[in-house]
From TrEMBL:
Signal peptide location: none
InterPro entries linked: ACC_Biotin_Carboxylase, ATP-grasp, BC-like_N, Biotin_carboxylation_dom, Biotin_COase_C, CPAse_ATP-bd, PreATP-grasp_dom_sf, Rudment_hybrid_motif
Organism whose genome encodes this protein: Shewanella jiangmenensis
Top-level taxonomy: Bacteria, Pseudomonadati, Pseudomonadota, Gammaproteobacteria, Alteromonadales
Protein name as it appears in the record: biotin carboxylase
Residue ranges of domain ATP-grasp in the record: 122-318
Origin: domain of life: Bacteria
Domain Biotin carboxylation: residue ranges: 3-442
Record's catalysed reaction(s): N(6)-biotinyl-L-lysyl-[protein] + hydrogencarbonate + ATP = N(6)-carboxybiotinyl-L-lysyl-[protein] + ADP + phosphate + H(+)
NCBIfam families: PRK08591.1
The keyword ATP-binding appears for this protein: yes
Amino acid sequence: MALFKRVLIANRGEIAVRIIRSCHLLGLETVAVYSSADKGALHTRLATRAICIGPAAAKDSYLNINAILEAAKLSGADAIHPGYGFLAERADFARAVTAQGIVFLGPDAGTIATMGDKISAIKAMKAAGIPTLPGSDGPLGHDMQANRALASRIGFPVIIKASAGGGGRGMRRVDSADALADAIALTRAEALAAFGDDSLYLEKFLTQPRHIEFQIIASGAEAICLGERDCSAQRRHQKLIEEAPAPGIVKNLLAAMAARCEAAAKGLGYQGLGTFEFLYQDGEFYFIEMNTRIQVEHTVTEMVCGLDLVLEQLKVALGEPLPARPLVRGHAIECRINAENPQTSLPSPGLVTGLQLPGGAGVRFDTALFAGAVVPPCYDSLVGKLVCHGHDREDAIARLRQALGELEITGIHTNQALHLKLLACEQFSPWQRDIHFAAKLL
Ligand code: ADP
């Protein structure tokens, strides 16, 4: 059990704001850190105090471990919450934090390292009885004859993935034996350049899967699954719309997978929030990766479970018991609002000149925006999450469409029109939808 009273949030934007709120609800003090590009940003205004940790470039600020540890020392922070992105899944960061005697609000560095590498993660999950796709069972070798034999045995199409990859990068689909050698060479070179690690993994490529993931909260000794989310609405392997519960999947099947995830988390001695991600096709689940941190889309789980996940995570870290297993009520659905040009989908940074917020029962907008806020060009383009809860899926979608129509952000461009198009689409029915439907539609 750890005791702490001042939490440094090593992040920015909506997630920093969201974490600060839960800390304050528990009476914990907060320390915001910011780059010079985020001077005056909402998270710096809501925290108990704020410390500048460097220039705009993320590598010099939000990814600068020394600067963050220095800020923790200076402010007397005794815990650090990494949020998502940036350093959240860096085992070296978790280790460095703990080495300073500061509580890292996440699993231990060893678990982050195992799960951060696709090869070791798949190996660990197989051992825990979690189903995986047929694949290379370890790193892909340099013997092309053996690789061709393996791919043919699995059956084309296959997908080659950088073991250290993340955020939808470092993956390549291969449709024939002829294309295999070039695809491996290209992905290897990209992986080395992007992640500094050229190990690759090969597995079966599924042509019509849905993306279904299970939320876990764990105390080390115990783990409970807070249900699943469907994140099949994606573009370029990036999630756009997420919902809970997953529509159109037999409840018994979901409950069985949830139980296996709980057992796996317990086996890992997992601590805090985590997500097991699966592809689902033809009634079967296949593990693809585990995220050892809070996820963007945790909010839909909060809405249907009636829980504040960050608050529960903080309580568990403070030695309190896990929450009681919640009943899932109604349906929640979320749109990721990105600052992007609707024609080119390139980032659209700038000054927010006006903001009109949606409201009403079951409507939630998590954001760091305000009129006068600046969206800097140097970070992720996510500027808000519009989440609606309804008594069923149809009701949640109706509320979300209404809220999307009410939300007005001026000064920057957003992807609101794209979301309205997706939600209006007849194909946005759970049965016709797979991870490729959004790309096909758009
Ligand atoms: P990352 O770590 O980059 O997020 P993941 O392994 O989680 O990579 O995969 C991200 C997305 O890529 C999935 O949600 C899915 O859309 C697609 N994908 C991954 N593996 C496969 C596969 N075997 N077959 C088809 N699509 C896949």
